[in-house]
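Design request, tokens follow.
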């Protein structure tokens, strides 16, 4: 089954709205003919101006987080309803930085994933092990658990639309990329657990990304592995030429 590859940028807490608009305006032409689905994960405050700037292009916009409630006394939070109202297509959920610094758990990831679907947003759900966990040999077990809890209670149709990003924590922002074999091995484990839970059709349809120091020089090797459907890209997505080359890795 052929799945459309994804190149999703995660800008983290980088770029002002002015810088963001400048960037996507330049990116639009570069990626116009891409075979890859192009997503930029921008800070909340950049969303309205970036959405306007990418109108009519093939660039989709992701938020980097959301709350699971629709509204209420949650100071500083943003809901799925608010993101949907701005026309956001994707939302990154459970990034390891959110888990580490903002106490996100597999349970909150599951709540957010349900809320994302409720408001018509596609979740990009992040999972992955720390270096200690890899050294202890529990990577597969841990990732299987994270995926199971994240997807708990979702329908097969929803899971087909979800995106999972396998991001080994030791490879994020460190310059240490997992080898394509290491990344493939865990992405295959993820597809297998989805097959066990939802059947082969769903497992064949869901897109599984690798994230962790993806750059122009390693994108092709990673993205052409059988169970890797593209990348969630941090640092390199802030650089126009690098991100262009990642999006167009097959040209
Ligand atoms: C990320 O932030 O999801 C990420 C993978 O970062 P980097 O590409 O910089 O390692």
């Amino acid at each position: 089954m052929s799945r459309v590859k994804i190149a999703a940028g995660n800008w983290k807490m980088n770029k002002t709205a002015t810088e963001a608009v400048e960037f996507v305006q330049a990116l639009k032409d570069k990626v116009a003919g891409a075979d890859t689905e192009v997503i930029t994960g921008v800070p909340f405050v950049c969303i309205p101006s970036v959405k306007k700037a990418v109108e009519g292009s093939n660039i989709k916009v992701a938020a980097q987080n959301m709350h699971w409630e629709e509204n209420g006394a949650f100071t500083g939070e943003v809901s799925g309803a608010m993101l949907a109202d701005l026309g956001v297509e994707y939302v990154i959920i459970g990034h390891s930085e959110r888990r580490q610094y903002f106490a996100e758990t597999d349970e909150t990831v599951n709540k957010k994933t349900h809320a994302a679907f409720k408001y018509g947003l596609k979740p990009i759900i992040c999972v992955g092990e720390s270096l200690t966990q890899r050294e202890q040999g529990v990577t597969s077990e841990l990732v299987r658990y994270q995926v199971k809890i994240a997807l708990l209670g979702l329908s097969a149709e929803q899971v087909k639309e979800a995106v999972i990003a396998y991001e080994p924590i030791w490879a994020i922002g460190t310059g240490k990329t997992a080898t394509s074999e290491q990344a493939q091995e865990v992405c295959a484990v993820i597809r297998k657990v989805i097959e066990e839970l939802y059947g082969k059709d769903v497992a064949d349809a869901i897109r599984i990304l690798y994230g962790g120091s993806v750059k122009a020089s390693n994108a092709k090797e990673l993205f052409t592995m059988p169970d890797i459907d593209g990348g969630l890209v941090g640092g390199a997505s802030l650089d126009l030429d690098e991100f262009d080359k990642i999006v167009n890795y097959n040209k």
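Comment from the thread starter after seeing the answer: thanks! The pocket of phosphoenolpyruvate is lined by residues 10, 12, 167, 172-173, 211-214, 232-236 (CB under 6 Å).
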